[in-house]
Structure formats: structure tokens, C-alpha cells
Amino acid sequence: MSGEKQDFFDKPDNIRKMLRVFYGICILLFALDFVIHRHTEFRWEGLPGFYPVYGFVGCVILVFAAKWMRTFLMRPEDYYDKRELTDFNADSGDSLSAQAPSSAQVKPQLSGGHDHV
User: Fold this and answer.
1) Which tens digit of pLDDT belongs to each residue from 22-80?
2) Could you tell me if residue 62 is inside a domain?
3) I need a surface site. Which of 53, 71, 80, 82 has the fewest CB within 10 A?
4) Burial 17-36 (b: 16+ CB within 10 A, else e)
5) In this structure, are residues 72 and 79 in contact, taking their beta carbons and an 8 Å threshold?
6) Is pTM beyond 0.85 here?
7) Closest Cα to residue 114, out of 93, 83, 75, 79?
8) In a domain? residue 66
9) Residue 56 sits in which domain range?
10) Does 98 fall in a domain?
11) Count: domains in the chain
């Protein structure tokens, strides 16, 4: 599809320019950390580059915590599909070829598929 219009971020040269601007801003902000006086609460907050290092370490800890939590929070890819099939089989008497229910038989369901009164 050579006739398709390319957006700004589709061109590798534009991405390269944006990354250079981003890195330049990061270097400038780090250099300003040596010049600007901050009124800090704790002694270690006054160290040059403390906040970038603190933010990086915090992000790394969050990634490792998320990987650990994934072990017990993750569900199989077809988790919801299986649930819909078991609900359908229970309602229709294990008949996969059941006819569509009439409008009088359809019960409104809230999220989660549970009937609430």
C-alpha cells in the first residue's frame, strides 16, 4: 500500500529526531539539578540526580512486583469463553443446539452473569 498516507510517527527519521529531543531534555534537566537549589526535607533528597534514580528504581520494583503478582492473578486466555459455555449448557439442559429463547424467556442479567434481586 504505497499510496497510503504516512503519519508523523510512521517515518523512522522523525522517531530519531524525537528521541534526540527527548534525550536532550533529559540531559538538560539533569544538568539543572546541579545548579538549582532545592529546599529538601531529608539530606539524601539534595543529592544530584536523586529523583531520576529514585524514579527508575521505583519503576523497576513495580515491574518485578507485577511479574510476581501475575503468577496468582493471571487467568487462562479462554477463561471467559469457558464460563459462557458452562452458563449456556446449564440453562439449556446441556444442549448446544438449543433454539433461541423467546423474548418472554430472556432474563436481564447484570455484569458477572448473576441474577440480582
Assistant:
1) 999 988 988 888 888 888 888 888 787 888 889 999 999 999 999 999 988 888 888 78
2) yes
3) 71
4) eeeeeeeeeeeeeeeeeeee
5) no
6) no
7) 83
8) yes
9) 50-89
10) no
11) 1
